[in-house]
Every structure is written in structure tokens, then in C-alpha cells.
Design a protein that fits this description.
This protein is mainly alpha-helical. Helix content is 82%, strand content 0%.
Length: 163
């Protein structure tokens, strides 16, 4: 008695729609995990490890954050592709747009400043703290909140679709 009636098939979402909804759920979750793992756990702890000097930690951080940035761009593009022509509302586009904005600010405005700062420290010109780090932490915090909101929205949509 599990046969689907004609009306069940007509109201059931297509496979493409289900994949789009799944992608809109998985991408923010993966991205959020990446930020938590690298920005909130690895980066601060790296400098407490035995034998890690500031120049060594900065060199490692430069490599890790450059790779993370590439992954973030790929995730954002996948998320954007999953949202195009798939019946998302204005609030979804707002969350997606804010995520893209925070990523753009990190990539274009903040990372070059951090890179110059790292170059100066590695050259022996250490002048104390850097406002670039505070800017990065602030934007990373905004992105984290935005991704959490996106996850709540995506879970709600997934539950409605699966019901």
C-alpha cells in the first residue's frame, strides 16, 4: 500500500529541487564548521603550542587562511548556484548576500592588510597589535551569525519539504 497516487507524484519536489535544498543546508553547515575549526580553534591555539614562534605561527596562519579563503569562495559559489531558480525568498537572498559581502570584505579589504602586517612582522618590524586582526575577527563574527541564521532557515525549509 505504499504506491504513490497521481496526486502524490504531482506534489512531490523534483530530485533537482531536493538537491538544491540539501545544498542550501549543507554549505552553510560546512562553512560554519570550517570557521569554527580554523578561526576559533586552530588559529588561537597554534600560538600556545611548544616551539611555535610568532614568525612560524604567522607563516602557518598565512597558508591555512589562504587555503580556507579558496574553500570559502567555492562554498559560496556552490551555495549561490543552489539558490538560483529554486524558489528562494527575499530573506534567503538577504542572508546569501550578506554572506557574500562578509566574504568579499575579508578577501578584498582585510586579508591584504593582514598580509602586509605579516610581511612586516616576518621582516622584524613588529610594532605591537594590529587593527587588521580585530577587523577580521569582527567580520568573521558577522559571517558566523549570518551562517547560523542561514542554517535555521535551511533546516526549516528542509523540514517543510520532507513533511
Amino acid at each position: 500500500m505504499n504506491a504513490l497516487s497521481h496526486t502524490d507524484c504531482a506534489t512531490r519536489p523534483s530530485t533537482a529541487a531536493r538537491w538544491a535544498v540539501a545544498t542550501r543546508l549543507l554549505v552553510p553547515a560546512i562553512w560554519l564548521g570550517l570557521i569554527i575549526g580554523i578561526s576559533f580553534i586552530e588559529a588561537p591555539l597554534k600560538f600556545t603550542a611548544p616551539g611555535i614562534t610568532i614568525p612560524l605561527g604567522l607563516g602557518i596562519g598565512r597558508l591555512v587562511f589562504a587555503a580556507m579563503n579558496v574553500v570559502e569562495i567555492v562554498l559560496f559559489l556552490a551555495w549561490l548556484a543552489a539558490s538560483v531558480r529554486r524558489g528562494v525568498d527575499r530573506s534567503w537572498w538577504t542572508v546569501l548576500g550578506l554572506s557574500g559581502l562578509w566574504l568579499l570584505i575579508k578577501t578584498v579589504a582585510i586579508r591584504p592588510g593582514l598580509s602586509r602586517r605579516t610581511d612586516a612582522v616576518l621582516a622584524g618590524n613588529f610594532e605591537g597589535g594590529s587593527l587588521w586582526h580585530y577587523a577580521y575577527i569582527g567580520v568573521e563574527g558577522l559571517l558566523t551569525v549570518t551562517l547560523i541564521v542561514a542554517l535555521f532557515m535551511a533546516v526549516r525549509r528542509w523540514v517543510r519539504l520532507s513533511a
